[in-house]
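Quick one: structure tokens for this chain, please?
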Amino acid sequence: MQPFCVRIMVAAQMLGVGRTKIYTLIKRGELRTIKLDGSVLITMTSLEAFVERYANGGPSGSR
């Protein structure tokens, strides 16, 4: 069973980026989060949607 949410470091490892990039993506609204007991968790659906959007070169004007 796939988790509904993952921690920042797990999301960074999944995308092959650093923590700073994950926080940037959150700030830009590219990734959705929830806060639970002081921890920031990223929803798997937003991670999957992000990968899908950028799988073919990203949205136009993103570079």
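The longest helix spans residues 44-54.
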